[in-house]
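Hi! If you just cloned this repository, the fastest way to understand the data is to look at a raw example. We've pasted two of them here, unedited. The first protein comes first, obviously.
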Amino acid sequence: MRKSTDLTRLLLLPTLALVLVSAAIPASAHDATGHAGGFVSGFSHPILGWDHVIAMVAVGLWGAFLGSRARWILPVTFPLIMTAGATIGIIGLPLPAVETGIALSGVVLGLLIAFAVKAPLWIATVIVGIFALFHGHAHGTELPSAANPLAYAVGFVLATGLLHLAGIGFGMLTTSRPGRIAIRAMGLAIAAVGGAFLTGLA
């Protein structure tokens, strides 16, 4: 139990850092300011848009909630499929309703967490993969203008991984009843933020 507690604290550190950065610099991930540059731009891009933050944290959170292999398979699946989506965006192939798909990712994943849905692993992987495609495409369309695409991609993947770890860290709270209630409340909050993006209120 001590090891689990220590791991939870360790995983919550990047969470706090990312939340502070996001709160200090509120901005949309797609504000057309063209900040696709090097490593710093790639690292900051996912955490400057709440639509991406909530989805990536939710993936880790739902994976931790499902437990067992899902705890790691979902956070690994997301960046892998996101890379495929980014490739589609880079070569200029269109993907319909990208922004809607991104907003829906927060709504759907948030509700799955809020209602404690224990989906089979393959279904959970498919759901996460579909949403990852939208997130990846959105970033892929911005990547060609980067001054250093490789550095940008490394920074972006690192930030994505930290956001997933943040979700996993919070998901470790499922070992207690108050923790499970808090996680479900977080699911509702994630769904609400996703809904705000979906309806244009955010």
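Ok, and the second one:
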Amino acid sequence: MVTVDELFATDSLLSEEEREIRDTVAAFAARRLRPHIADWFEAGTFPAREIAPELGKLGLLGMHLEGYGCAGMSATAYGLACQELEAVDSGVRSMVSVQGSLAMTAIHMFGSEEQKQHWLPGMAAGETIGCFGLTEPDFGSNPGGMRTRAERDGDDWVLNGSKMWITNGSVADVAVIWARTDERIRGFLVPTDTPGFTAREMRRKLSLRASITAELDLDDVRLPADALLPASKGLGSPLACLSEARFGIIFGALGAARDCLDATIEYTRTREVFDKPLASYQLTQAKLADMALELGKGQLLALHIGRLKDRHEVGAEQISAGKLNSTREAIKIARECRTLLGANGITLDYPVLRHANNLESVLTYEGTAEVHQMVLGKALTGADAFR
């Protein structure tokens, strides 16, 4: 027997340091997260305040950023960490992505030196939690239509509006809020204890249940002038942060798929049907072979994109290609695995349907599959089909 990693010899493409980072995250996930994840999912909760400092000690929060207490690891190493976290649950990887690739990256890319010094060390340590407020109730795929506004009032800014589907929103200490001004879209750092700022946790979810999701309301939230992210200039600023988060998804979604496939292979080897193991049937092996092939191809593409990113040669179209491929193939694998587990596949005794439910969200957040198809279509044809 071989694993998918062995089948495609992907370890041979990693440095010793990258393998060590991957294995360290996998060991932490197995010890600290995996024993509890089914219960967290069933209860619709995640102990972010408790887990974040532990992730910080491992250097996983903003791990691809330089300075300010951040680990400064390679993009590929960050991707491998995301893969191991999402092999446990998409909600765990989402928490890390929002903290590091969205909130911390926004401050690191567009903040003043004073803002970086004030916020980033605590966020890297997991002592301070951040969220990223871009999506609104009526504007998901079209963030440029946002209605949240920031108006000047003397030296202050006053923000009004709402944001929706905000991971970490109700447990965050600081929210990166994107708002329309008279000139352009700008980013603001909003301490969550600011009067007029409220966060309501969103319940009744059937996906990403082991993740904190909130709706944010801003009602005459008054901020000092230095709350503005000074280098944020237009919609391109939050979109640059989204590209960082999408990169983590390229690896992360494949971690969920791998966990489904591993659990299913083990199940089929021990489950007897008509007096022999389910794994010994040709149709079962055909399904497993096809899933292993797509998983292996996805991992090779992810590693290639990681290398391009480490050389600062990756484009937005390549990130879109990776995100589209990983999420689309991962959810197919999860659904196919469920068929092999039969009725057992719908229970939390196995991770498969939990991953499939989570991947329904991963498929559509940070750009739906259709959005990424149009990104690729524009790159291939030169024609913009977004409007």
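That's it. A detail worth noticing about the second one: The domain at 130-227 is CATH 2.40.110.10 (Butyryl-CoA Dehydrogenase, subunit A; domain 2).
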